[in-house]
TrEMBL record:
Protein name: 3-oxoacyl-ACP reductase
Naturally occurring in which organism (per UniProt): Reyranella soli
UniProt superkingdom: Bacteria
Upper classification of the organism: Bacteria, Pseudomonadati, Pseudomonadota, Alphaproteobacteria, Hyphomicrobiales
Family: Belongs to the short-chain dehydrogenases/reductases (SDR) family.
InterPro entries in the record: NAD(P)-bd_dom_sf (IPR036291), SDR (IPR050259), SDR_fam (IPR002347)
Coiled-coil regions, chain positions: none
A Pfam family annotated for this UniProt entry: adh_short_C2
Transmembrane domains' residue ranges: none
Length: 259
């Protein structure tokens, strides 16, 4: 299926690896020119080169912390009129809510709620004027099924989801959709780190812990960044213009509810 977005311009945040990179690659394969972002310059530039070589699109890497005002300004300066924005950043740390002070909450809200909102604010009027826009927020399955030790993520991402639910119904009339893509467990460095920590605690090997975790998922495996990217590219396609304000859960069926 031709996604109908060849020649469009996208900003993909937090995209040197993992889910962000999966989205960047999938959009590039559809002929979308990219501004990609992450903090570590060497890794980001290597990813930009890999995408260019594989797809031939224009890729501009901007190595900044996207959760800062200055960082977001640099990203937007490199792509002042984006057609597509993929909002992403690292997730907040796990812990016990009794230990989180105001600073911990502000940091989580800044990264996982206000940063995507700032990108929406900066881009949505231009998109509506031009009659086309796609914004996909990478959030988490924790929006639908909260995880107790990820309270900072549950809270901040739910705030973003609530905000988007309202605005996505105002923009769609002008060709601009905003949706959430909710990852369950995906095979990225972040997930591998979780299983390394688990192995260090349990005394079992990393492989044993990782494989046991994968088997527990109804699909019998973890998701891949490539399949996550493909779903993202579809949400950004011309075919998805009637999908807005939705939260698409990709978790291999791990969420046990009917709705
Ligand atoms: P990952 O493999 O660790 O990749 C994270 C990417 O984000 C890297 O490119 C990293 O590069 C970049 N990044 C992190 N903080 C940034 C910042 N402040 N500014 C700019 N770039 C930043 O992680 P992932 O698994 O793809 O996770 C992506 C998001 O999905 C996270 O919010 C995570 O909580 C969420 N999620 C993931 C899963 C999963 O199973 N993988 C499940 C649920 C939710 P630098 O470090 O160089 O900046």
């Amino acid at each position: 299926m031709d996604m109908g977005i060849k020649g469009r311009k996208a900003i993909v945040c937090a995209a040197s690896k993992g889910l962000g990179k999966g989205c960047a690659m999938a959009l590039a394969e559809e002929g979308v020119d990219l501004v990609i972002n992450a903090r570590t310059k060497a890794e980001l530039e290597a990813t930009a080169e890999e995408i260019r070589k594989k797809t031939g699109v224009k890729v501009t890497p901007i190595a900044v912390d996207v959760t800062t005002d200055a960082g977001r300004k640099q990203v937007l300066a490199a792509c002042p009129e984006p057609d597509i924005i993929i909002n992403n950043a690292g997730g907040p740390p796990p812990g016990d809510f009794r230990d989180w002070d105001r600073d911990a909450w502000i940091k989580a809200i800044d990264a996982n709620m206000l940063t995507p909102i700032e990108f929406i604010k900066a881009s949505v009027d231009g998109m509506m004027k031009r009659g086309f826009g796609r914004i996909v927020n990478i959030t988490s399955s924790s929006v639908k099924a909260p995880i107790d030790i990820l309270g900072l993520s549950n809270g901040a991402r739910s705030g973003l989801t609530g905000f988007v639910a309202g605005v996505a119904r105002v923009t769609v009339r002008h060709g601009v959709t905003i949706n959430g893509l909710l990852p369950g467990p995906f095979a990225t460095d972040r997930l591998r780190g979780t299983y390394r920590a688990r192995a260090a605690k349990s005394g079992k090997s990393y492989e044993e812990e990782y494989n046991a975790g994968a088997k527990m998922n109804p699909a019998g495996r973890f998701g891949t960044p490539e399949e996550f990217g493909a779903a993202c590219a579809f949400l950004c396609s011309v075919h998805a213009s009637y999908i807005t304000g939705q939260n698409l859960l990709m978790d291999g069926g791990q969420y046990p509810g009917t709705y």
